[in-house]
Amino acid sequence: MSLPTINPTTTKAWEALKSHYENIKDTHLKDLFKNHENRAHLFSVQWKDFYVDYSKNRIDKTTKKLLLDLAKEVKLDEAIQSYFGGSIINETEERAVLHTALRVPSSHTIEIEGKNVIPEVDSVKEKIKGFSDQVISGSLKGYTGKAFTDIVNIGIGGSDLGPAMITESLEFYKNHLNVHFISNVDGDHVHQNLKGLDPETTLFVVVSKTFSTQETLSNATTARNWFTQHASKEAVSKHFVAVSSNIPNVTNFGIAEENIFPLWDWVGGRFSLWSAVGLSISLSVGYENFEALLEGAHEMDEHFKNTSFEDNIPVILGMLSIWYNNFFEAESEAIIPYSQYLHRLPAYLQQGIMESNGKSVDRNGNPVAYQTGTIIWGEPGTNAQHAFFQLIHQGTKLIPAEFIGFKHSLFEDQDHQDKLMANFFAQTEALMNGKTEAEVVEELTSKKLSQEKLKQLLPFKIFEGNKPTTTVLIDKLTPKSLGALVSMYEQRIFVQGVVWNIFSYDQWGVELGKQLATKILTEINNSQVSEHDSSTQKLLQHYLSK
Ligand code: F6P
Fold this sequence. Notes:
This protein is an alpha/beta fold. 48% of the residues lie in helices and 11% in strands. The chain contains 22 helices and 13 strands. The strands form three sheets. Strands 1-2-13-12-10-11 form a six-stranded mixed beta sheet, sandwiched between helices. The protein has a five-stranded parallel beta sheet with strand order 6-5-7-8-9, sandwiched between helices. Helix 13 (287-306) runs parallel beside helix 20 (479-500), helix 14 crosses helix 20 and helix 18 (437-446) packs across helix 19 (451-461). The mean pLDDT is 96. The site of 6-O-phosphono-beta-D-fructofuranose has 14 residues, from loops.
């Protein structure tokens, strides 16, 4: 069944939200809290080890009701069935979207065009497990009989960001293997990484779903050339493995068929870390932890699939994002993890969210007349507080922010953890409350400032407040909770795409740049600039004159 194709702005709920917005837009969060003693209870969800508090958002009961009515009117429930059921919901590429099938237990059956895909998924998992165990234990050896010490993941986009983000997030759980990520076609990236490596003990994992991506093929070729400067060509098969759905291209590149970990066209690149694309995760933290990651994601999938919209975390988060994007006209959202381990999460989510929902044509093929994809950015707290929080507190733009924190730290240094979390709670409170004129006067008076100085400083020290935040408080950063967290965002992407009536699982917009780059590269190689606009022409001439 295809996804419904309802223009959200034609729904009753959208109209009602528009007039409701006029009523609520100037209400201060502080007043919303004053009016409802039970607000924190009313607008929060406790699910397993997740506590999601969305009460510091500019909503009331009516807002929530209308947002959920909108989800119902665009038939989100039907869309969820089609998605999990393996329908071809990525219509422009004629593919199912089934990364969720990668994390179901073996006993499940998921069919694509009448064929259960789970046995195949399980056999690849077995291959990942067997290979990871051998590399970690040292029983698999390099060409001179030494155990591997370093793993190099070569890939880009979803073939890099997912494994890199998870590997860094789970650094606490990692084993002795050093894992490196090479993605950029900037030669300095690959050469800088190769510089410190020993070819006898380095294993390359070349990850590319299509095995046609310029960056990845260039980096893999450079790595192979570096390797064969030290070892024979025959030794390549012991040191290079590939993850891809394009077997002919991999074998043409010179990687033996038994060294290929397959994936399927129903796994989108930016949702692929749960497949063999996550091989470097499994190598870094062991297969059991990789499996726990999948288990956590599966539990969140089940929550999403089976929970009523009223208490459904991805649905609520997705609809809140729509509330700010389409009614408050907020352009961006900040994601602030209060964990240094999660420092790559915002970058990972930038691809997930922006490559999926950065679309301007609806599922009927018509241009959309409303805003879609939000701009995502962020950095870990508390560092972010000392960088860009000023703009969130006192700038002119409304930036809804999501705070992700953990009750327990991994090294159990309670002194640091309490300081970190004190900041975590303080920021959402400060963003909500701001600081009134009376409070500033009181503060400055207590500092015994002259009346003149006080008057001068007053306007700069007032914070309007009323800045919305959502808090996701999780017990502890574990492979399982991380899996659930990432799935929470994946499902939120789906919710927003369905409501906006766009196709979230293609990415045609990145193709044009790729095509032009190929054309320009030929011109550079031939030192001959063809017809361009005068700016590009001059820039190219300038580059070639070096
Ligand atoms: O940037 C476009 C894109 O197709 C992403 O969606 C994908 O994750 C990335 O390129 C890498 O693609 P591949 O795994 O085929 O090399």
